[in-house]
Amino acid sequence: MSRAEPEEIFNPRKEYDPEMYIQRPDHEKQFKNALRNDLCILVHGQSGTGKTWLTRRVLLEEEYYFKQVNLASASTAKSISMCFQRIMAREKWNIRTRYSETKQASLRVPIADGGVSHTAEYAPDIDYFLEFLKFMKHRAPNKGKKRYIVFENFETIIDNEELIKELSNYIVLIDDDEVLKYNTKIIIVAATTDIQSYFQKASNINTIDNRVMELPEIRTLTTQQSFELVGRGFEKLDIKFMSQEDEDLYKRKIAWITGGFPQRLHEYCLDLSLRCKENNWVAKKEFLSQAMITWLSTSLNKNYAAISKIFVYNTQKVSRRNQVLFCLGLKEKEQFTSEEVMLDMMSEFPYSTKKTKLNVTHILNSLCRTEPVILFKDENTKKYRLSDNKFTLCLRSMLFKKENDIVGMYDLDDM
Is 179 helix (H, G, I), strand (E, B) or coil? Predict the structure, then answer.
């Protein structure tokens, strides 16, 4: 049996792969419980946390028939309705049409129906949503079981009020008598928080709120789950390590640098496994730093550039801003307070922070005004969050502690 290629194992953009799926018991249980209700379901979490794979895993495991609708294509199609039409056309579903009758001009060919031919025309008033429900019911293997339309990439339409309104209408229509007979519900997958606030702009939020169930936010993988994904992938590729210590180092480093984001784990491991392949499928320690350089200069290049612009390049003096940036890379929670960052600074840089004013709040507020913006601040809770999880991963990769509480930055050119 031939060995698999790295991109066949580690591929963040490929379709759901049950062999590389890492079980997530808590999220799966919450999802399965939600499926027992007759409400629409909202699945949300940061980009790259594995929401799509989780959704497909649960629906397949529970044997629900479903169809995905990519909302990213709705912007170019001008409507979600057109997305339904395209899916049905792709799957050779003959949409019911009206017919016009025309008399045959020639008698050379035998003609049924008394010499009248039927020419199909698309009716301008076809309800593609209802037609899509008919299509799903016809294609579903178990006609008596509930079906789901899974709307993916909700975050791509949040600035389009018309598309939000259209999606809101579908959520409301699901409970309409004409629609109920199709026994179909909706799942919305979004890489954003507070989904319902977007619906509020386009419709009466109460009509939506009563029809949906919002799952708890989908989190990143735990350290142990990250170890499992890395170990399983390397085992499938039969990558060899010089020692158990080296293998453990790989797992720890990869889990920390990627923050447990499944998409980032796949990206980083793909680069590493390609390097191992070139070395006769043997892993070397230096591949970790080499893969990190590639990652910083490709997937994280914009984030690297943004941090490079605000980093204080003085190797002889302590910089509070640099210390704050270093501590931001340590954050595992999505939201945090200035007090939490200050405690991290006092722990990581004990000598230079002792009995002195740190001005953490001032520095954090300044990072909310950078271009591009690095931090967001919630004025109600006074909590901060990084504008993009890639900044966390970038800070972990590019910054390091030197002597005398000084923070250094890896220069890609030097590396």
Answer: helix
Question: Does pTM top 0.70 for this prediction?
Answer: yes
**Cβ-Cβ contacts under 8 Å for 39 (sequence gap 6 or more):** 185, 211, 212, 213
Q: What's the chain's Rg over C-alpha atoms?
A: 27
Q: What whole-number distance in Å separates Cα of residue 202 and Cα of residue 161?
A: 6
Residue 331 identity (one-letter amino acid): K
Q: Are strands 147-152 and 65-70 parallel, antiparallel or unpaired?
A: parallel
- Give the model confidence (pLDDT) of 35-51 as tens digits: 999 899 999 998 899 99
Listed residue (243, 238, 235, 233) closest to 277, CA to CA = 238
Cα separation of 167 and 350, whole Å?
53
The count of residues in the chain is: 415
Tens digit of each residue's pLDDT (9 = 90 or more) over 236-295:
999 999 999 999 999 999 999 999 999 999 999 999 999 999 999 999 999 999 999 998
Distance separating alpha carbons of residues 212 and 54, to the nearest angstrom: 19
3-state per-residue secondary structure call for 205-269: HHHHHCCEEECCCECCCCHHHHHHHHHHHHHHCCCECCCHHHHHHHHHHHHHHHCCCHHHHHHHH
